[in-house]
């Protein structure tokens, strides 16, 4: 039997995959922080209010081709980890990399979210610099 927070993550990522950003953000605390490492065009720290800034860059740089394949989800009362494959086209080239999203929970909502690419250099090359 899976943990309730695992189910929450699976549901939120399914909502996100359908393009329902508001629905995804409903599953986050008001003070949520989103952290993307490195020196790529998508890198930085974002809040609930600025999350669309990140999504705008993702969709703009990928020409709307961004896809996220959920490989696995692990969660307990306090933390969650999602293993994913990201795929998209940029500059007429297919880009693919593996990444992990690490979250913390506050009352069943995402309170912090961090991207941890399997290979930071590959991640930065995929997205290009700022």
The CATH class designation is Alpha Beta
Strand order of the largest sheet: 2-1-6-5-4-3
- Work out the count of structural domains: 1
Overall body shape: globular
Layout: helices, strands, pairs:
Layout: H1 4-17, H2 21-26, E1 28-36, E2 44-47, H3 51-61, E3 67-75, E4 79-90, E5 93-106, E6 109-117, H4 120-127
Parallel strand pairs: 1-6
Antiparallel strand pairs: 1-2, 3-4, 4-5, 5-6
Structure in words:
A hairpin with a 3-residue loop joins β3 (67-75) and β4. With 130 residues, this protein is α+β, with helices and mostly antiparallel strands. It is built from four helices and six strands, in the order ααββαββββα. Helix content is 30%, strand content 44%. It has a single domain, classed as Nuclear Transport Factor 2, Chain: A. The protein has helices at residues 4-17, 21-26, 51-61, 120-127, and strands at residues 28-36, 44-47, 67-75, 79-90, 93-106, 109-117. The model has no long low-confidence stretch (mean pLDDT 97).
């Amino acid at each position: 039997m899976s943990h309730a927070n695992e189910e929450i993550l699976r549901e939120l990522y399914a909502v996100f995959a359908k393009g329902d950003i508001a629905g995804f953000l409903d599953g986050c605390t008001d003070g949520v922080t989103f952290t993307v490492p490195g020196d790529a065009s998508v890198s930085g720290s974002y809040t609930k209010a600025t999350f669309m800034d990140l999504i705008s860059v993702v969709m703009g740089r990928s020409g709307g081709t961004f896809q996220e394949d959920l490989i696995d989800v692990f969660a307990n009362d306090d933390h969650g980890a999602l293993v994913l494959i990201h795929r998209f086209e940029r500059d007429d080239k297919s880009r693919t990399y593996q990444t992990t999203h690490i979250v913390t929970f506050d009352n069943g909502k995402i309170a912090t979210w961090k991207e941890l690419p399997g290979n930071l250099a590959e991640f930065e090359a995929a997205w290009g610099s700022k």
